[in-house]
Write a structure and sequence with these properties.
The chain is α/β, with parallel strands linked by helices. Helices cover 31% and strands 27% of the residues. The longest helix is centred in the middle third of the chain and has 15 residues. The radius of gyration is 23 Å and the shape is elongated.
Length: 453
């Protein structure tokens, strides 16, 4: 069983409704596998916690339809139902054809769609809206509607009657207007789940709300209409001997695709998790992976952990292979400048980073590898995603090497990305491992070589 949750536009309430739906289905005893359309990290953190299973991303910019369907099937292993949260509007994408839209993803995995409608100041016009979405791409299956921000019973009755009469699509839920948002936001979207107090109580509340206002049996009936997908082997490689790879994963650095971590494990990694705020030294590891996050929010605490920063710097000077993305890049620089304050970081990369009030890079990226490095062959195309408000500054050009030429996106300065120093490769680009299998394989080769020294 599977179902996709879409909407006419962003901020319609998809995330809170998807969270409530997942929580309610889980409370009913079902194993729920969550997915998020697009390259987002923050929403998947919430969806994964609600489901008790790691949320996975579905993105047609990274993978073609066949590969995407295969990743979907693998991700569903052991689940009773899959719930896919869309992004932006249902048909929104990078091109006129919407080739990477939520609708396109739903078609690729043959998932019926439930459309979430923000009904603020709307009654009968909701039927025209739904009918337009119903007919825009006839091969897109909109199988149900959930009304959001409903004012009162009369409002719901007019909405429900209009939509069902003019479109034939059932309304399977009606969520009342809330006095305040459930989850706070900051400059990159929702606050991460790692930072939210009483998160389990919030998810319980959303689950109870869904049980009260959404017909779960109707949702399950829709999900059961999904056509079968080809079977895919779920057996993973078990390379040996295992090599210990450190992963800094905590409230500061939490942006990791589960597929990336699994790709390292498939190549022989034993993942060792490290806390940048409380751990004082690096453990015995042969490689280090530092993902994205919010180092600017925790800059003072990161600075105060002098011993860990010194330990990282020392091991890198000894040749430790390190791969860092976005927030990880910022952590490895000399200083982080935020709100007029200067915070010392690891001092590995010969530059600083400065936070801005507006995004420096936001969206999909395409990089061409133009310099030799141990991860990617020269001339190879690297696709990814970036969303950062920081930019490098005070660069020592004589000590720094850039391995990527930016063809789409911003990177470090609109032209370059990928800093290579010693065995460190740091980039603003977030890479999705299934689209670049050489990344994990080559990183593990380098880690094994380091372990022999």
């Amino acid at each position: 069983m599977r179902v996709a949750i879409g909407a006419p536009h962003g901020r319609s309430g998809k995330t809170t409704i998807t969270l409530g739906l997942i929580a309610a289905l889980r409370r009913s005893g079902l194993a729920v596998q969550p997915f998020k359309k697009g390259p987002d990290f923050i929403d998947p953190g919430w969806l994964g916690l609600a489901a008790g299973r790691s949320c996975r991303n579905l993105d047609l910019y990274f993978l073609n339809k066949q590969r995407l369907a295969e990743q979907f099937v693998r991700g569903c292993h052991g689940a009773d139902i899959a719930v896919i949260e869309g992004a932006m509007g249902l048909y929104d994408g990078l091109d006129l054809e919407g080739s990477d839209s939520t609708a396109a993803v739903a078609r690729a995995v043959k998932a019926p769609i439930i459309l979430v409608i923000d009904t603020t100041r709307m009654t009968r016009s909701a039927a025209a809206l739904v009918k337009g979405f119903q007919n825009f791409e006839p091969d897109t299956e909109i199988a149900g509607v959930i009304l959001n921000k409903v004012a009162r019973a009369r409002h719901e009755n007019i909405l429900r009657g209009s939509i069902e009469s003019y479109t034939g699509i059932p309304v399977v839920g009606a969520i009342p207007k809330q006095k305040k948002p459930f989850i706070a936001e900051r400059h990159l979207g929702l606050v991460t789940v790692e930072e939210w107090n009483q998160v389990n109580e919030l998810l319980d509340e959303l689950g109870q709300q869904t049980e009260k206002y959404v017909d779960l049996q109707a949702v399950l009936k829709i999900a059961a209409t999904a056509r079968p997908l080809p079977a895919v082997a779920s057996v993973r490689k078990t390379a040996s001997p295992r090599v210990r790879i450190g992963v800094i994963k905590d409230s500061v650095f939490s942006f990791y695709y589960p597929d990336n971590l699994e790709a390292l494990e498939d190549e022989g990694a034993e993942l060792v998790y490290i806390n940048s705020l409380s751990d004082k030294f690096l453990p015995d590891i042969q490689g280090l992976y530092i993902g994205g996050g919010f180092p600017e929010v925790f800059a003072q605490k990161l600075e105060e952990n002098i011993s860990l920063r010194a330990s990282i710097r020392s091991e890198i000077e000894n040749g430790l292979p390190v791969y860092a993305e976005c927030g990880g890049l910022m952590y490895l620089c000399r200083n982080l400048i935020y709100n007029g304050q200067n915070y010392e970081m690891c001092g590995v990369l010969p530059c600083d980073t400065r936070m801005s009030s507006v995004p420096r890079g936001h969206g999909y990226t395409k990089m061409m590898t133009h310099d030799s490095n141990y991860l990617f062959a020269q001339g190879s195309e690297i696709r990814g995603h970036e969303f950062h408000h920081s930019q490098i500054c005070n660069v020592d050009e004589n000590e720094i090497n850039f391995i990527f030429k930016v063809e789409r996106g911003y990177g470090l300065d609109g032209q370059r990305d990928g800093i290579a120093v010693n065995n460190v490769i740091a980039s603003y680009n977030h890479l999705y491992a299934p689209s670049h299998p050489e990344w994990a394989a080559n990183f593990m080769i380098q880690a094994r070589q380091y372990g022999k020294n």
